[in-house]
Amino acid sequence: MGWSVTSLVVAGFGACLVAVGVLITWVTAASFDSERDRAEDALSALAESEAPEFGTLSESAVPLLGDLAANPALRSLRPGACDRALAPLASVRDAARLVVVGLDGRTVCSLSGDPDETVPAATYLKAMADGVTVNDNEVFVDPATGHPAIAVAAPVPGRSGPVGAVVVVIFTDVPDLALPPGVDEATAVVAIDPDTGLVAGSTSGAPYVAGDIVPWKEPPAVGPDGVERIWRVVVEPTTGWTILAGVDVNVATSAARDQRRTLLGFGAGIVALVIALALGLHRRLAWPIRRLGASIAASRSGGVVRPAPESGPAEVVEVARAFNDLVDSHEDLVQRLRHYARHDPLTDLLNRRGASDELDRLLGDHEAAPLVVLFIDLDRFKLVNDSHGHVVGDRLLVELAHRIVAAVPDTWIVSRFGGDEFVILCPQTPEPRPGVEALSEVLRGTIRIDGLELRVGGSIGIARARCGMTGDDLIREADTAMYCAKDAGRGGWAEFDDKLQAMALERLRIEADLRHAVRRGELVLHYQPLVDLATGCAAGVEALLRWQHPSRGLLSPAAFLSVAEDTDLIFEIGSWVAGEAARRTAEWRAAGTPRRVSINVSAAELLRTDVVATVARAVSDAGAEPGDLVIEVTESAVLTDIESTVAQLEALRALGIGVALDDFGTGFSSLSHLRQLPADEIKIDRTFVAELGHNPVCDAIVASVITLAHAIGLKVVGEGVETDQQRAHLTRLGCDRGQGYLLGRPVPHEDAPPLRAVG
């Protein structure tokens, strides 16, 4: 077959366009490379010039600290003499904290005058133990000021060795880091301690600000502000800190972009010329070919597509061949359409229609008996989908589908029934429980997607086929059993029986009544005291939700909370609880009997609502003090999405609202997670408290948690204190507060204890 005239002309014009395109691309790329090289050289020089400023930060304090430690006035460790020795250094208060501590670690005096001011223990203990000045360049967030800082300590000499230490906490972000004259404002300089990931200091407009924690060793090209930058990195040898200098790539390559626009304009002119010529050829040559192709596509005989003859001019042959290729692929397309009519396009499992067809087939096959149906509903998939988007949700479903198929016998048929629901058909299965246990383990597992650690969990309903049942009957019974498993605490399984049917009906009645409970004023809060174990005084109260049902009496959350979470009523109820608790704290404060009230926030509220806005509105509407409220979140709720949760909790604390980590020890958190969480206190779960004095492992765990919490500045509350022995054990371990029936039962607001002794 020879070349057509159109082909030759188009080929010629195409070659010209390709040549122009290659030339423009090469020139543009060379220009961008040159501009980028110049920017990188300038950034390297800038980082090298800024590095010494951080290297001398702690070194400059060593002589001053040594002279101060040698001051005879400090050796007696008398507060008055100590204050006089520190007075000449008052000018450094904005840039550092200066504290003198004794051998027992207690504060003797400080530049701020606060007798309870604390400093990092590890630094001054090492200085006193070694008898030398300790220069600790590891950056930490100063709990007293929130500044990123480093600590330097010098021992105060005595006759028999050090009697104390002088400790300076130097703020690494004071004064603000400034760019040298002549450097573009789009340039950013950031200093990072690679050991902790803390940003020690940064220039104005930098994407990472002082006090941030960065998870990377090499900076990503695109920062959290969405700006792409060129970065150069140097290491400051004295501190080991990483000094980064970066500039907006658009600023660095602005000249190259201007050149590219000029070249593109030139190229656009050439393209316009080629298009004009091509249109002229199209009118003369291509239209007849199109008409031929349309005629072939429209030719059918009895619904069967007939191939077109491949003869005639080259253009006609090309169209005929393309049409015939379509005919060849027609059967494959039909097969794929038939497949996806019965299969889920995301997971390639059977869909609802395919599973229903298979179930009807199995019900009619006596060899499939005994037949069991499993109905799986993911417990927290909606939270993941709402928090991270449908792309992450879809990838999670695909991975979970693979794990489910791998966990069950080959004879079982797995289907995605819709959304976050899976149905498994189990023919010839007299006892499904081993398989159900394997599935439960899969559902409890962690799935990692793009650095996210996701745990969704799932509840499983089991139904067994009986004589005369239809497929819809079997699915309905498995669905009912699944909801009963979800009500029992999520993450478990239940098998259908008549009792579960009654429970399902009961659930529907509870849901119907609960939809009107807030409007009818049927919800109430009872208050249980949190007692200071050292003094026996009430240190606050926890607000516990109750439902004053018109016919069933006072109901605890166990009777209705799971229904609220599954039907999204939890958001209306959570908003009411925040408003009621805030209103009550305002009333108590106005009456001269202030109480600190803790309220619980569910995982659904944390991930699918703006908790910060809800609580702030409640405080504002009630005229309450933010410090009178404490938000309690469970450990498992935090772990569902740590990044999002931490952001919400930090915003709450910024408003002055306290944060407590509830049921600590029942989830799967690590010590690193605990360090990240912006909490004021943790509450040790009652299961550990109940075993105190009887289980050495629990004793060790509780002691370790208390020690760790105190080391990072957290208060500790022991939950479920019901005996004098448990209270005494917690007191010996140094637990700050206790809560439980021994110390006080939940009572209406008028009976809630003031800040006085309760036991």
UniProtKB/TrEMBL annotation:
Q: Which UniProt keywords apply?
A: Membrane, Transmembrane, Transmembrane helix
Where does the GGDEF domain start and stop, copy by copy?
Answer: 369-498
The cross-references to Gene3D superfamilies, in alphabetical order and at most eight, read: 3.30.70.270, 6.10.340.10, EAL domain (3.20.20.450), PAS domain (3.30.450.20)
* One GO cellular component, as annotated: membrane
Q: Where is the EAL domain?
A: 507-759
Name the InterPro entries on file. Answer: Biofilm_reg_signaling, EAL_dom, EAL_sf, GGDEF_dom, HAMP_dom, Nucleotide_cyclase, Rev_trsase/Diguanyl_cyclase
| Biological-process GO terms, alphabetical | signal transduction
Transcription in keyword set: no
**Span of domain HAMP:** 283-335
Where does the sequence pass through the membrane? 263-281
A Pfam match: EAL
The cross-references to SUPFAM superfamilies, in alphabetical order and at most eight, read: EAL domain-like (SSF141868), Nucleotide cyclase (SSF55073)
Transmembrane keyword on record: yes
Which protein is depicted? EAL domain-containing protein
